[in-house]
User: Fold this.
Amino acid sequence: MTKKEKILEAGLKLFATEGYTATSTNKIANAAGVSEALIFRHFLSKEGLLSAIVKEGESAFKNLYTPILKESDPKEVIRLTIALPLTVPESHYEFWRLQFRLKWELQSVNHKKSQPLIDKLSWAFAELGVAHPKQEAEFLSDYLEGLASQILLGKEVNKKKTEEFLLLKYKLT
Assistant:
């Protein structure tokens, strides 16, 4: 692992667990085993480091939902969307914890990043004749976000039963 990768990893972990405001570049440097000056050389500032972490994570998020956007079967769109928060590998949890933390700590929410998924869900619900497809898409998206936050907080979630319930609710079984 390169020193830059160590900085990114340490920054992600500390920002996610301790918060952006409470995490100093000195603390990140110590955790990464590098000099504080190296952080500034690679990222110019703490904000630059956060931006690099978020950009990397948003790319990973896009990779997760791209297959849903390419799907042409409306039932499969909903099925894949339901599975999304239930199948994220634990190795990605730190990034998702950071996303949730940033929403509250910095009031930083990029609604545009999930809009393509909501639009695709709206299309799927419309194709299936659901009365209010946009509202149903937003409801499912909000529900899944809440479910994801429970998983990230370590709450015991029966993923299989939750998935079965949602598939039954949307008549996908």
User: Anything to note?
Assistant: The CA atoms of residues 36 and 168 lie 53 Å apart. The domain at 3-169 is CATH 1.10.357.10 (Tetracycline Repressor; domain 2). The chain has one domain: 3-169.
